[in-house]
Amino acid sequence: MGHALATMAHALTTMTHALATMAHALATMTHALTSIAHALATMTHALTPMAHALATMTHALTIMAHALVRMTHALTTMANALATMAHALATMAHALTTMAHALATMTHALDTVAHALVTMAHALATMAHTLATMTHALTPMAHALVTMAHAITTMAHALNTMAHALNGTYCGPCLSHNGPYFSYNDPCLNPNSPCLSHNGPCLKPKLLRPMP
To answer: Where is the signal peptide (predicted)?
Structure first.
């Protein structure tokens, strides 16, 4: 029995030692878990401001994204406006080019008109000079015709006087130098007048007859 009790005592001692070891192990585990919990709490405490910072950054990036969208829209509007301005300027440039071409055409036409007017003025001056020359030439001709008319009138007056002397006829002042012979409306210029008629007494000495 003593041996059995000794064995039991040894077994109990071993069990006690084992339980003490287990208790020490549990204490070590508890300490380790406490350290882990403390570390997790510290990490959680550190991650909380990081989460706030990330949320703030996300909010800021969202605002920036909205701003970039607005800027893109504004730049698109500006690009469209610049394209419209470029088209308008191109249209204006084309219109100005057309106007310049029209003005050049008008200038050429006016130059042609001016040249034509100068040519016409030169021609009119030449015509005026020619007419003056003709007038200068016609003046002595007119004097010569007046002299010839005076001579013919004198001859007619002489013939009429001869006819009057031969047959007693006299055509009167129709053939007188100072008489109505020179009047345009005088009846003596009428072809049917007895003084100037082809069959009248003044032009047909052989058919002379007294004046009525």
So the answer is: 1-18
Residue pLDDT, tens place only, 57-68: 999 999 999 999
Structure tokens at 198: 């082809």
Q: Which residue has the tokens 């829209």?
A: 73
CA dist., res. 175 & res. 190, Å (int): 13
Q: If we measure between CA atoms, which residue out of 178, 182, 183, 203 comes closest to residue 192?
A: 203
The identity of residue 7, as a single letter, is T
pLDDT in the model for residue 142: 86
**Quick check: 170 and 164 in contact, CB under 8 A?**
yes
pLDDT per residue as tens digits for the range 126-173? 999 999 999 999 888 888 888 988 888 888 777 767 766 665 444 444
User: How close are the terminal C-alpha atoms of the chain, in Å?
Assistant: 222
CB within 8 Å of 22: residues ≥ 6 apart: none
**DSSP 8-state symbol, 200:** S
Mean pLDDT, to the nearest integer, of 29-45? 94
The residues spanned by each domain of the chain are: 135-207
CA distances 168 to 41, 42, 177, Å, are 176, 175, 21
The pair of structure tokens assigned to 35 is 């350290």
